[in-house]
Specification:
Shape: globular
Radius of gyration: 18 Å
Largest sheet: 5 strands, parallel
CATH superfamily of the largest domain: SGNH hydrolase
Order of helices and strands: EHEHEHEHEHHEEEEEEEEE
Number of strands: 14
Strand content: 25-35%
CATH topology of the largest domain: Rossmann fold
Number of helices: 6
Strand order of the largest sheet: 2-1-3-4-5
Helix content: 25-40%
Structural class: alpha/beta
CATH class of the largest domain: Alpha Beta
Number of domains: 2
Length: 271
Amino acid sequence: MPRVTMIGDSVSGAIAYEQAAQATLRRGAVVSLQLAPCRRVGQTSCPHKDTTAPTVLQLIQTLGSTLADTTVIVAVGYNDFEQAYAGNIEDALLALRAVDVKRVLWVTLRAERQSYLAMNDMIRAAAARHPEMTVVDWNLYSRGHPDWFQPDGLHLNWQGARAMATLLHETLVDLGIVTEPAAKKKTLRVSAPSVVRARAGRPYASRLVARGGTAPYRWARASGVVPTGLRLSVAGRLTGTPAARGRFTFVVRVTDASRATATRRVVVQIA
């Protein structure tokens, strides 16, 4: 089975206390959970109960070659400094490449603070430069679900832990890293937000998601015009730097391994 290592802080750490969430995440994969409160990516982690968690960079160095050929999920950032986050992401990706990690999933931050919106832009910008990196948009997925969170709006309750594990598992399936049993597969469809939001002059990266069907998936534009500065790859990555503000509409088509197809209208709002 494929091997997955999840590196997280106290937000994703709720998965360690919710057996159903762990069962979801481990379906079809061997998963190692490296979750610790107050973890940061590069700067020294903040202390918690007289202990200081190793940073993402330190943990990569410690695990070393054991990470080779694994998929690494990074869900860290709530304790990080906004000014250093972009550079720390870059350092982490280089460190993961050095130990032969082929795929990195980086989880966006729930934007309860303005700084987290900017840090999510940094995550997308890094994905635009690094094809091995996939953005897992927890901020979007959790929108409209205050019932998943503790009073601070960030830390997860048992429902949130299960929801995050479900999103991560679905992403692993969509990328073809994990194979879903045939009995669980559903009709091929495109899952996308009603409106994709980007900013003119700022790097953007996201991945279109197919549900059901049989991986691998191939993507193409079926009709309409992709905004200038953005391009859609056959892997479903929408990347680039939008050139102009406006509202743009186009239709995407996904084809799975059995040649089944599905389409969906995509609206891109560029501010």
